[in-house]
Amino acid sequence: MSDKELSSCRAFVFDAYGTLFDVGSAVAKFRDTVGDEAERLSAVWRQKQLEYTWLRSLMGDFTDFWTVTGDALDFAMEQIGKKDPVLRAKLMETYLSLDTFPEVVETLKTLKSQGHKLAILSNGAKHMLISAAKSSGILTLFDHIICVDDLKTYKPHPDVYQLAVDQLEVDAAEISFQSSNGWDIAGAGHFGFRTAWINRTKQPMERLSHQADVVLNGLDELLPLIEAPQKA
Q: SS3 for 158-219, per residue?
């Protein structure tokens, strides 16, 4: 993708969990309580959370992301042998106020000041996304918070990406989609978005039909690649 192509994008759409919000920060806040299994708990929780969205979509058995997140946590806690209802409640509550990655706030402020349309497109339930965005001070930077609650299926189904086209009222090719999840980037690229993979953890490329247009180490690396829209 060239700088010119990125500059022609009229909207920048962001995945939420793992892209804007650090999903590992929930367990990290209770590391002393969880103990030596903290990293494993966090990893299994996230993996099962993703798996349950994919499986429920395939099964046609939708339930909202808050329920999925709780089910995934229950699985993860049982796997590490941790039975602690108080800790479970605290972890779920913390998911409503996850930390953002260090570069997120300033990057979004810069994009907003340049006049770009900004949106979140996430599997997250609406109340989860609003709570986390408000807690981190970025809620007012977005033109839209787009979730799958009404659609009742999860990414990477093409209908989810269509929600952004419909709500932003721009063509798919005019949207730059940012995600830290390789599978999400593949889904968005297959749909027709331009894509920026935020590969903070240096993961290998997914073996799927579409690969990222650009691969970045952080969201701030977007800024040198784009320009403010030209005013009429």
A: HHHHHHHHHHHCCCHHHEEEEECCHHHHHHHHHHCCEEEEECCCCCCCCCCCCCCCEEECCH
Structure tokens at 14: 């962001």
Give the number of other Cβ atoms within 10 Å of residue 11's Cβ: 22
Q: Select from 203, 184, 207, 206 the least CA-distant residue to 195.
A: 184
Residue 30, CA atoms < 13 Å, CB-side half-sphere: 19
Catalytic residues: 15
Q: What's the pLDDT tens digit per position in 209-229?
A: 999 999 999 999 999 998 655
What is the reported pTM? 0.95
The string of pLDDT tens digits covering residues 68-102 is 999 999 999 999 999 999 999 999 999 999 999 99
